[in-house]
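Researcher: We're reviewing a set of sequences before deciding which ones to prioritize for further study. For each one, I'd like a predicted 3D structure that I can look through quickly. This is Transcriptional regulator GntR family. If possible, include the structure in token form so it fits the rest of the review sheet.
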Amino acid sequence: MWGIELQKKSKISLARQIFLSLKQRILTGEIAQGEELPSTRELAKGLGVSRNTVCDAYDMLLTEGFIVSRQGALSRVAEGLHIVQKEVVSLKEHKKEHVPVRWDFKTGQPDLSLFPWPLWSQMIRHATNTLSAQQLEYSGPKGYEPLCQEIAHWLMRNRSIDVNPEDIFITSGATQAFHLLVDILYKEDYAFALENPSHPGIHTVLQDRGHLLQWMPVDQQGANISCIRDKDISAVYVTPSHQFPLGGILPATRRAALIRLASEKDFYVIEDDYDSEFRYSGAPVSPIYSMDSSRVVYVGTFSKTLFPSLRIGFTILPKPLQAKWKHYRNFMDVQNPVLEQVALTEFLRKRKMDKHIQHMRRIYAEKRNVLLNAVEHSFCNAVQFWGDASGLHVALQFPGMEFTKEFMLSCQNAGIRIQAVSQYCSVQNNHTDKLLMGYGHLNNTQIRKGVKALFQLIAENSSQGLALK
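Model: Here's the predicted structure for Transcriptional regulator GntR family, in token form for your review sheet.
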């Protein structure tokens, strides 16, 4: 009746099925505006359902304004509801056959199989059982205060920097920090200075907003800041402890020069310290923040040390920026979920973080050695290593070679996930002889077989002119 077909076994109630069917016919014009609907008794009899079911459906239509009703008269369809729906023309796409990834050298991926999941689950349960009703309310844009205090203690233990917990603000990872800092530090007609090459996270944010960019070339010692001395700068973004992606460590002379320039030209330095915990020769590199906390915004994350989906990072903010930060964060998402913050607080307080990092540093050092040995065994002296003393990836330079788009497509078709350094450059013809190899998430066998597969592919493509200049 009325084109309504009821599905008795559906998870949707009969009343809602009637409502949805009539609503759709009203919107398409199959039931005209002003047209009378059958009485609830008549429609119930025609559909073989109870009158109460139809009454419920009519009540839904009335509540949402699809029908009007007067006492003693039949319900009518309201005016102005007909919507002409345009036909969507779909373009047929040729589906490419998906090639499974057999050797995955993606960067920035920790070994999640070695994270102490039972301990973390225990801390999550403890947090669930101990949180008060008041702690489950909105807490504001700064973050869980005990976590800020434990991060300050942890930074002192691991970086030897003295941080006031009042200056620590919890974020949803480093990416959110970049979004906020770009808005806070922006000056009209002033450029943001970035390393070239650099991680796409921050320069994508800047490009999406249409802000000016000033690129700083990178060598084996990190960013060369001489090119920004005479420029109008909003802020400078650097990865000084382990430059991404080339791995250099910014020397003290360049750090001091950058701080002097920031003071002279009144801008802030954004220091992204994304993975310096994993250093394999000596202690972690001291951050620029330890040289001058008044001009440096320090951004840290737990994505590499714990697990990426945790989405907890932190920013150490100079006092003049804190009011703006609170305002922007309040109208972005207010705060991070409190449960994970409480668990992470315990993880830090009980020194489980310290123990986990020490354990993983030994594991990653072994994987790094396996990778370097495998590369040397396959390629002999044809490869130079960049940034192999820290982090979870290595940059490999192949002098005389050029890794073209065709070559990268060959890698994809061969099941090798690997990245060219040139894709992180402002101009695609820079650093075309370098590849990035992430290894943190791989086991030793995967590393050796993956390097061998890459060697064979490069040899094949070189003979075809796809990877040679």
